[in-house]
Amino acid sequence: MVLNKGWVISLGKFIQRMKRNLQSTKHQMMKVDWRSIIFFVMVFLLLRYMMIKRQENNVKVFDAYQDYAPAIARSNKLTAKQKVASVVQQGSSQHEEIKYVQSKMEAAPTVVKVPTTRAVLDSKYDKYKHFKCNLKPPVKRKHVEPLIKLDKTKFLFPLLVNGPNNQILGLRDSIYLAIKLNRTLIVPYFIKHKTDSSGAFDQVPAEARMDVDELKVLIPTVPHAQLQQVCRNKVDSVFLSEVSKNMHATLPYERISKLAGLNVDKPKDSSPGVEMLPRNEHDLIIKLNDINVPKLRNMYKSNGRCAVYVHPFRTVGAHESSPKMREAKIILEDYEENNIRTQYDQKDEELVYSLGFMSTGHPQFVKQIADEFRNKVMHDASVLAVHYRFDPNDWMIRCAKPAGNTVEINKMCQQLDKIKPIDIANGLFAYINGLSRGKTVQVQAIYFAAPLTLSNLISEVRVLFDKNVAKNYGTKIPIFTYVDLEKFLGKYINCQHVGNNFEDVLSLVEMEICLKSISFISSQSSSWSNIVMRHRVANKVMKYDSHTLMVVWEAYLERTKGSS
């Protein structure tokens, strides 16, 4: 402990004054033992030190990491122009210390020290390495039998492909197929995005991507850890999809064996090897909305115990729909909370698929972190969320090959080539101005979800946007980004699933922030945006939503009006 200098000086002056008083006394009643006085002073200091340390153990202190100081104005005295957004003033160099009282939960959350594969995380969040994970333990769900009963002697194990959000769509295809084929689903592992700096295509446990317990309410499942046990260390059937149809001519046995972690028999003299379905390659061409359950059952008709479904992604014909997602939500809530089995049409394929969609939400810890960020950093402001997907290292690569694109994608590429930061800033300002008309929606902050590679662009947008708002309304609407969330997420580095999957978790938290915003501007041709939009529609909070290029392109046209 570092003692306060003033406190030490005061203590010294007290001792000297006491000594002078005793020396000036003519009739001394007792003999002063200075060693005893020093002893008692040292005991006092030790007790004081122990009390301070105990208080520090009961209070969590961490940096708020705010570029903007909390000053959200809630006064009814604001002018009409000011009410376009409540005042959130920027702090010059303020970094608030926020104290959290230790949770009084009966069961403390499990603390798992997860070594990160990113050296940059180790250095960046070194001051948090001694922090305990202060996330609340997940709420235990009521133990119920799955809503849909499936054969527990036959299994389906999906091998997922593409980016993180396409993988979750592939899982939903697999849930639907498992229901239609009457097979128990083996919960798969996921893989990291190709741009993930901690290890492209590394495995991610399902618990870090989705609420696995939520899925158990719908169908029986087997955890990935029991894969070899239930499959008896062997693949009995390989189910190909349209995405993996190139494997039909020559099945990559070793590759499938490695990905699945199971033995895959090759053809031998008297043995045909592992069963591969469908037998006809042309059967694999299934268009979205081409729902044909008898065809699916015939394609994948197999008595094999363990089937591996290779690269599902929009390959079963069925899909979710907004009305059916709302219906599915009610069915699942009634069953889990009240044990009420709502009667529904089991041949309503959109509803069956939507049940799987609504059973694969984000993990509880992701939702908790998102709530903490909204509360502690954004101060429960009314947020406009923007997803700007157009990363030159990822999405924009397709613009260099127009021949392989759809007409819609090529049109987007042409528009993006002309758009400048000023158009994004002006588009956001005009959109917020439109929302504020009629005093219906008042935006107090913006969360700009975009890849880190677009940091410079966002910085330019922020400067231009701030000038526009200050000029017209005399106030400030802060823009929060990946950078703010990354700093905040650092304090959870020792929580289970966060350290090893930092960028993965960060993206999921961003999605949760967008899910609960008052308005969401999505990116076209993005599965990330599509998943957010679907959930917003199911929860009926999409009234004020729009699309990025629609908002920004209008600003571009306004800026270039009259020019040749």
Describe the structure concisely.
By secondary structure, the chain is an alpha/beta fold. It has helices at residues 5-24, 34-57, 119-124, 164-181, 212-218, 227-231, 253-260, 293-299, 322-338, 349-357, 364-376, 407-418, 421-436, 455-473, 482-489, 502-515, 527-538, 548-559, and strands at 59-63, 97-101, 155-159, 184-186, 190-191, 203-204, 221-222, 237-240, 275-277, 306-310, 383-387, 445-449, 479-481, 519-522, 546-547.
Radius of gyration, in angstroms, nearest whole number = 30 Å
By CATH, the topology of the largest domain is Rossmann fold
Total beta strands: 15
Write down the domain tally. Answer: 2
Q: How large a portion of the residues is in β-strands, by DSSP E?
A: 5-15%
Shape from CA axes?
A: globular
Main sheet specs: 6 strands, parallel
The first-to-last residue Cα distance is 71 Å
State the helix count.
Answer: 18
- Average pLDDT works out at 81
Helix content: 40-55%
Strand order of the largest sheet: 7-4-3-10-8-9
Helix/strand-derived class?
A: alpha/beta
Low-confidence stretches: 25-30, 54-118
Which CATH first-tier class of the largest domain would you pick?
Answer: Alpha Beta
CATH architecture of the largest domain: 3-Layer(aba) Sandwich
